[in-house]
C-alpha cells in the first residue's frame, strides 16, 4: 500500500497550479487535504505523475457571504466549515450535514471543495452544493468557468472538470431565516459513507410549501435533485398525504445500486424514510414568509 | 509459605488491586518497540504478489522486468525456495483428518485470493511494490466451490486433490439417546444459525524481520506473534536449525485477538530468505494484506434443535455444524480448532443429558480460519442462547427464568457436559442473578413494554455461557493437536543487585501481563512491584514455551510465577536467616525488606543478594544457593470461566439501525489479580462482540474475491458507538488453580453476539421475527421485516 512514484510540486499561485496541471498533460492531480486522494494513491487506484499542492496558495481559505450567496474557498477545511458561525446561521443545513462528515482527524484536513471535486456519490458536500444551487468557480490557463452544480457531477468520482482545471471556490445559496430545512442521513457507523441521505429546504407561503428543494445521495451514481418529488410538494399543505406522495415520487425516481452494505430495495426504502423525516423536520422549522 | 498466617494477612497485597498497567507509559508515550520499528542496516524489504485467483494452476511466472527495476535485489517464487525450507505440517491425531502442508509461497497451485505467490526483495518497500506490478503470472483457472455447502457436496471440485475430499474434518459428540428424546418431547425449537466469517483486525498489522548472523550461523526472527515458542519449534524443523541457533522474539505486539496466533507463510519466507541472502529481510503487511491474508474466524452454519419439557427443562439437543475452514489447515491448531469447538461447547453451561453434535470442516478457496478471541464459543453460544430464547417464547416463559431452571447449580459441580467437557465449579447461577440485579431486570422489562406500547422497537437479550480456561496438559487446546500447551514455566532470579527478573514463555500482546505477573510475584516474594522485571515473548528465555492464547496466561504463568517465587523466597530467607542469625521461620518479607518478627533487625533484598553473590565467605560454601528458581505449573485440567451478559437495544423502525442502549456483564473469573485490567478486557471483548453481532463480516463473492478488504467495507466497532458497560465481578467459589485464577480474556466476544442477537430478536418479536444470522445488519432486518409483512399483510411493521 505504497503509492507509485510521482513528482510533487508546491504551487505558489492559482496560475502556477493550473499551468503545472496543463504541463502534466492530463496526468496531474491537485492535492489539498488529500483525505480521499492519498488512500486511492496508496491503493494504486490512481497514479498521477504529478501532485500539485495548492495548500500554500494565498487567498483560497476564505468563507465569504455576499447577497444571498455563500462562497467557500478551495482550502477551507471541514473543521472550519463545521465551526463557522456564518454557516451555522445562514446555511444551517450545511452546518447540520457537517456532523456526519467522517471523523475529527479527517475533518481537520479534508476540504469542502475537495470533497465536491472527488464527487463520491455518498458524500455530503456534493449533495449540499446541488441542493443549494451551487456554482463551481474554476481556473484554467485559458481562464475560468462558472459551472452550475447540476452540470458538475457526471458519475461516480467523475466531474465536468478538465484535467488542468482547478476549483478555486464553490458558492451556494444562503437560507433566509424563515426557510425550513432538513437533513437526514443513515450510515452503518457514524461518520461512514452514507447508505442514504436526504437534504431539503422549503419555504412557507400562505401555509403552503413554496419552492421545495430535495436532494438525495447514496442511492445513485451521483447526488441528485428530485424534481418530481419537489413538484409533488410545491404548493401543498405539507400534510402527511403530501409528504407520502413526495416520498413515493422519490422512491419511484431513484434506481439505487446494491452493494455490500445495502440492497437496492433497502436503499429505496431508506431514502423514502429519510426524506419523510427531513421534510417533516423542514416544515416544523419553516416560518411564514412575509410578503416582501 | 513461611510466617504465621496473621502476619501474611497484615501485608498489603497487590493481587486484587487496581494497579495501573506498567506497560502503558512505554506504549502510550511512543516508547514501545514493535517489529516495524526495527530496521537494521542493510535490511531488504519484501513485498508479496498475492493470488488474484481463487483456484488456479500457475503456468508460468515472469520476473525479468521486475528484476530490472533499480533497487530490486531478488525475486523469489516457490521454485526458487526448493531445498531452502521444508513445509510445516499442521498434524492432528483426529480420525479422518487430512493435514494440508504449509509452504512459504504457492507451489504450482493457488487456492485463495490473497495467497502469497511471488516475493520481491528491494531496498525499499516502495520499490518492491513498484516491481510487483511488473511480475507476470500466467494462471490456468481451475474449478472451485466457494460456498462450504457446495464444496462439501459429492462431486465438488477438489481444492487439494490428494485429500480426496473437501471435508477434511468430521467428528461427532454424542451422549444419551437424543432421537428418542425428540420423539416424545413436548416442546421443540430449531433453527439454522449462521455466524459469518470475521477477521481479527489488530491495530498493528503482522510484521516479521529475520536476520541471519553469518558468524554464528544463527537466525533471529522478530515476529508480531503471540506464540513465539511455537514458531521457534516449528521453524527449527522447517529450517533444520537447532533451538540454540534459532530465536523468535515477539517485541511489543499491538494486539492479536487470535490473528497472530498461528504460523504464517511470511514468517517462513523471511526466515528462509534472510539465511539465503545473508541480509536482514523484513516484511510488514499492510491493511489490505491483513484483511485478505490473516487467519479468519467462525464462518459456521449450525443447524440445531432443542427439546424441552413443558416446564422448560432441557431434554435434548442435536446439531449439525458445518465450518468453512478456508483453503488450508492452519499450524498448529488445524482447521478443526474453530468448528469442532462449536460442537463441543454447544451444550453450554446447562444441564443436558442427551446430545448429538456432528461437525464437518470444509475446505473452500478462502483464507484459512484460525483462532479468534472466543474460538468456537461465540458461535456455539449464539446458537444455543437463541434456542433458549426461542423456547422461552414458545413456552411463554421469561428468558431469565428458563435459564435459572437449566443452568448447572453449585451442588452439581464438577459437571460433565454432554460433549465431555468438565465444568469444575463456577458461578453460573450467581452471574445470571447478578446481571439481572445490576440491570434491575423487572424495571427493564417494564421500560421495554412501555416503549413497545408507544410504537418503539425495544428488546432485551440475555446470554449465559461457560468457557474452559487455563487448560493444562490433560486437554489439547485444539483437537488432537500433538503439541503441549498445558504447562508454563517461570524462571525467576534475584540478581546481585537485589533486583528481580522473571522470565516467562507467554507473550503478552495487550493483556497487561507485565503488570499482573509482577503483582503476583511481588506478593509472593514480599518485594515492591517496581523491583520486578517481567520478561516474555522470547523463545530464548526458557527451554520450551508456547505463548499467550486460550485464556491461559494468568492461570498458567500466574501459577508458575507463584511456584518459582516461593522457591526463590525460601532461598532468600535461608540466606537472610544465616546472615541475621535468626531462624528462617522467624523472618518475613515485605516491600523488599526482610524483617525478623521477634527483633528489630532487618535486611533489604539488596543486602542479602550482595552477601550471597559478592560477599565472599559471608555464607558458608555448602549453604550458598543462587537466588533462582525455574518451576513449571500444569493445571492439568482447565477451569470454567462463566458469565451472563444482558443487552438492551432499540431498533429504528424506519432505518432499522440498531442502538445498544444498555449493557451489563456479570462474570466469574475467580480471584481477580487486577480489576482495572479485567474491566478493560471485558469492555474490549464486549466491543468486539458487538462488532460481530452488528457490523463485521468478511464477504467473498461468487467469483471468490474478498470484497471486504478495506476498513471502509469491513466495519469494526468504533469507540463512539459503544454503550456504557456495567460490570459485576462474581467471585463465588475459587477454582482449584494455584492462586484461584481463571482465564477471562475472551469472555466478552463469547457473550456479546448472543446477547445482542437475543435483544434484537426480542425487539422484533411482535413481528414474529427470529434472528438467525450475524451480523444482524439494517439490510438483513429490512429483509426480515419485508418477509414478515408478506406473511402478515395487515400488520403495521414500520414508520
Write the CATH architecture name of the largest domain in chain A: 2-Layer Sandwich
Beta strands of chain B, count: 29
Count the domains of chain A. 3
- List the chains of the largest interface with their residue counts: A-B, 27 and 32 residues
Instruction: Look at the helices and sheets of chain A and give the structural class.
Output: alpha+beta
Which fold does the CATH topology of the largest domain in chain A refer to? Uridine Diphospho-n-acetylenolpyruvylglucosamine Reductase, domain 3
Strand order of the largest sheet of chain A: 4-5-10-6-7
Q: What Rg of chain A, in angstroms, do the CA atoms define?
A: 19 Å
Number of helices of chain A: 12
Class from secondary-structure proportions of chain B: alpha+beta
Mean pLDDT of chain B: 95
Sketch the major β-sheet of chain A.
5 strands, antiparallel
Query: What is the CATH H-level superfamily of the largest domain in chain B?
Result: Aldehyde oxidase/xanthine dehydrogenase, molybdopterin binding domain
- Amount of helix of chain A: 25-40%
When the domains of chain B are counted, the total is: 3
Percent of residues of chain B in beta strands?
15-25%
Concise account of the structure shown:
The complex is a heterodimer of chains A (292) and B (799). Chain A is built from 12 helices and 14 strands.
Task: Describe what this molecule looks like in 3D.
Chain B: InterPro entries: Ald_Oxase/Xan_DH_a/b, Ald_Oxase/Xan_DH_a/b_sf, Ald_Oxase/xanthine_DH-like, AldOxase/xan_DH_MoCoBD1, AldOxase/xan_DH_MoCoBD2, AldOxase/xan_DH_Mopterin-bd_sf. Chain B: Pfam families: Ald_Xan_dh_C, MoCoBD_1, MoCoBD_2. Chain B: Residues 29-143 form the Aldehyde oxidase/xanthine dehydrogenase a/b hammerhead domain. Chain B: This is Xanthine dehydrogenase family protein. The complex is a heterodimer of chains A (292) and B (799). Chain A has helices at residues 14-23, 37-42, 78-83, 85-90, 92-98, 104-109, 112-118, 124-131, 149-152, 227-233, 240-253, 264-285, and strands at residues 7-10, 28-31, 50-53, 63-66, 69-73, 135-140, 143-148, 153-155, 158-159, 166-173, 180-186, 196-205, 208-217, 224-225. Chain A is of the alpha+beta class. Chain A folds into 3 domains: 7-52, Uridine Diphospho-n-acetylenolpyruvylglucosamine Reductase, domain 2 (2-Layer Sandwich); 63-173, Uridine Diphospho-n-acetylenolpyruvylglucosamine Reductase, domain 3; 180-285, 2-Layer Sandwich (Enolase-like, domain 1). In chain A, strands 4-5-10-6-7 form a 5-stranded antiparallel sheet. In chain A, helix 7 (112-118) crosses helix 8 (124-131) and helix 11 packs antiparallel against helix 12. In chain B, the strands form 7 sheets. Chain B has a 7-stranded mixed sheet, sandwiched between helices. In chain B, a hairpin with a 5-residue loop joins strand 19 and strand 20 (500-504). In chain B, helix 11 runs parallel beside helix 12, helix 14 (428-439) crosses helix 15 (441-453) and helix 16 (513-525) packs parallel to helix 17. The longest helix of chain B has 28 residues, at 553-580. Residues 1-9 of chain B have low confidence and may be disordered. Classes of the chains: A alpha+beta (292), B alpha+beta (799). Chains A and B meet through helix 12 of A and helix 5 and helix 21 of B.
